[in-house]
Give the backbone structure.
Amino acid sequence: MKQTMSIKLLAAAGLLMPCAFGATNLIVNGSFERPVVPVGGFTNFDTGTSALGGWQVVGAPGNVSVVSTTTVGNGLTFPAAVGEQWLDLTGDGSNTATGVQQTVATTAGTTYVLTFYVGNPNDPGGPNGTTSTVNVFVNGTETFSITNLAGAGLTYMFWQRYTTTFVATSSETTIAFMNGDGPYDNTNGLDGISLVAQAPANQPDTQQTGQNQ
């Protein structure tokens, strides 16, 4: 079923922003803090598993990896955008159209704000590629695709924040984030996901002091 989606895009280079509107984050484990992985390492999760702290691994056969914020490799560091861990949609040499999805309770007719971070290690000539593309699906329909091109000349993975809105059509909505990088790009970061109901037009926006995870 095709969903109508109005898109608003914000990219805040390197900034950690809280959920807006003072609302509850409907996403469970939005910063991939569970399960805990080895410090400085990572753990792989294959397509079909639901062991990823509220997320199911979906898409093409392959895997995704939960990565520690202290991981280093190829002369680069890979800090998380939020918390101590982040998700690599390319997995451990998987590099397929694999991703994660989660189903949340929603109210039909209500507008929801989806926010997330995409990490890009700009690694010319190296195994990590120079761009990171994430495709977002709402109830099985691709509604949003972004590419983080930033980070040239940096020695760390560069995060950008993106925000989009959609109107729920039922009491449940499934959100999926899929790897859009090519077969020779070994890193595509995802972190800090939140989904909140949009504040009514007559209610001023507020900012809370921390991001739900």
